[in-house]
Amino acid sequence: MCMGDDVNCPDFEAHFRQFKEEINPGRRGFLGAGLIGAGSFAAGGLSLVTPALAQTSAAKAPAAPSYHYLPANSDTVHWGYFSKTLAPKVEVDSGDYVTIETLTHHAADDLERMVQGDEGAESVYKWTATEKGVDRRGAGSTDPAVYKVGSGDGQGVHILTGPVYVRGAEPGDVLEVRILDCKPRPCANPEFTGKSFGSNAAAWWGYHYNDMLNGAKREVITIYEVDASGDRNWAEAVYNFKWVPQTDPFGVTHPTIDYPGVPVDHGLTSRNYDVLKGVRIPIRPHFGTLGVAPAEADFVDSVPPSYTGGNVDNWRIGKGAVMYYPVSVEGALLSVGDPHASQGDSELCGTAIECSLTGTFQLILHKKADLAGTPLEEMDHPMLETQSEWVVHGFSVPNYLGTLGATAQSDIYGKSSIDDAMRDAFRKMRKFLMTTKGLTEDETHSLMSVGVDFGITQVVDGNWGVHAIVKKELFSGRA
Amino acid sequence: MCMGDDVNCPDFEAHFRQFKEEINPGRRGFLGAGLIGAGSFAAGGLSLVTPALAQTSAAKAPAAPSYHYLPANSDTVHWGYFSKTLAPKVEVDSGDYVTIETLTHHAADDLERMVQGDEGAESVYKWTATEKGVDRRGAGSTDPAVYKVGSGDGQGVHILTGPVYVRGAEPGDVLEVRILDCKPRPCANPEFTGKSFGSNAAAWWGYHYNDMLNGAKREVITIYEVDASGDRNWAEAVYNFKWVPQTDPFGVTHPTIDYPGVPVDHGLTSRNYDVLKGVRIPIRPHFGTLGVAPAEADFVDSVPPSYTGGNVDNWRIGKGAVMYYPVSVEGALLSVGDPHASQGDSELCGTAIECSLTGTFQLILHKKADLAGTPLEEMDHPMLETQSEWVVHGFSVPNYLGTLGATAQSDIYGKSSIDDAMRDAFRKMRKFLMTTKGLTEDETHSLMSVGVDFGITQVVDGNWGVHAIVKKELFSGRA
Fold first, then answer.
1. Interface test with B, best of A347, A442, A460, A464 (most B CBs within 10 A)
2. Residues B201, B352 contacting (CB under 8 angstroms)
């Protein structure tokens, strides 16, 4: 149902007014407490934003937040990269709300279920013998010899909506991104009313690929159905098929999944509907890729996550979560995409249930000068906060763009290591506990051993991830 | 309160009779269903033991299970190793119940709180100028030149109670170990009535040790208090102290924590009571070490976990959990120890909250000949089942004793790798889903990516661990 966030709803205007009314400060709670101006939630005021910082940040924002809507179409998305060179698609003030449609970059695995009849998706996926709806796909070379017609060479795969320009944001600031809502994009094909669909590709970049039984190598795509009404909290498989060479409209043949958005011709595949019968995947709707533009390069492959966030691929980055990002360029330039209906810790086969979602966010800017003495003072990595947890994200190389130099974007794929990501997660959690909780180093070592959980975020994004979770309740006994 | 499992309780006999009455089949449920003979629990009969196998196994066991009590003292524990050469401390039939006291091997960090007045613990920790209550400590050399008087050289550290001999158990069988209860051992010192205590050592084998700030190296022990009544579900720190060289009763000085059970002389330490103020650690009582004796060597260091279980250090191995172990030697020879009041995934600093616990177990033997076609047919690794989850355990080297040859017990410490443990966990979960759920390889790859969570069990036991969790609810839609 439209909550003021579906521009195709006949009653969109009325729903939109109602939504804006409901999000007025003082009328609607978020995570158990107020919106901007409250600055804390859960028992004991355990937000990383102190009440004082919240007040300071709120005082610098307009008194009444505005609401923005950013649909996903060929004018509002960029495909496969973050870039500080992009023109903003929407400008917001600190405290504003913005609903952002996101499209999965795997929709071409089943155009009938994930694109057909959906005006926005159709404009993005448009690909004829002479043109593509979104020309550049990836951060790579635009040399025509590399692929075709100045379109990137597929280094980077995610369809990202944005960027959102946050007025006043400068390097050194911290951008707080509250995820107020996150729900599946209903299928626009009348044949599948009330449903949403996602694709899971067990692909050549998957962790399993070089370790298949009997030395086999194949890419297999599974299409999942997700209930768009929200009545069911689980997804189920519809069918799967083995990737066979596909020739795109430009006439290039793809023996593997090597370029984003290649339309799958199911006249060539063999669809198997006898798949995962009776298996129900609990849904965990979230954004695999959410972050701000890094300063280090003009075009940055969307696959490896970094200090500015991006493709963190943690399923906890969904409704009710708050992300904190260090701002790297003027305006922050937030983009979001890679929507997932569900994912397990590790994203083992290379992808999640890749399913278009629409999110509603509140963006709050915290200025560098105001951070001193607050938990956000030294926040130089993407930080996740939920109602009950704080989560740091370790990577094989924390800031690979800064560390690996000119060839960083190719070299990072040779650095994939859980061991290295664990090392980084350990250091980040230690620093987090020492700086935000005032613990000594010895206290943190003990606490991390008896009360912090380390998990494997993903082993498929070049820059592999380990997250560390500390529950807020550990500090509930503090004054 | 004594539930028929505290021999020091004045009403032990009455409580014991009541306990035995309550555990009669048909009178008391376990994990939502019956005991032996029911063989399934949770919705949909989702136990790894099929109803048919449960009946078959029950038919081979005595009609009425017996109850046994194994206290912990110098006669019933072995220190630092598993061994197929040990004489059983108790013999049981399949289906029997046994309450086993376990002692933490870190109790000498605070003898006043964890040993004094506790007859069993005192007998184990006894150490005079001429003798030790438990002489051999570790799987290592008994050459007097290595340490002292034929006592092992500290290769292996855990105080293990047992072994329990299961009548009829032979290599190739599977032993099911149901953990019916698991609770802290009350402090016997009248000064601390109603409390239990544990020790956390941030030690030289910890993950943090070579990565401390400013290149420092120190070992720090934190003493935690745990509520023995069960009214509080959290532990809190009491004090911490830096390890300073300690001279044991034999006159050997220990500059680091290099030998099990060295009594700490607090006249030499400086205790800091201003530690982790207001921090409450949620308790997760469990057995760090639980397993059967391996066939590959006579004396096996208790530190690295292996295919027979042992020091798996997964905090989920607590009350309500069921472990399955492949039997490797006649009688299975189950031992248990390394009790923990709480631990985080990774056990980062080297130890958990090491706290003596008493557990009540039911042991059920499944004969090799009866396993064909059941989920236990090819179970060649320690497998955890809870009411809601199945958990496989991957290790850097799955069966290091078999793989690394004669020098396995030293070589394994050079093989520590989360990356390798992840590889093993992936392969085990794939095999588990294919064999027990009848999925194809392609189905498992997709399912593992969208519905299985991989976490870091421990990075401190030589043979590092990664676990993979699949929730039973994924299969709740199956007929």
1. A442
2. no
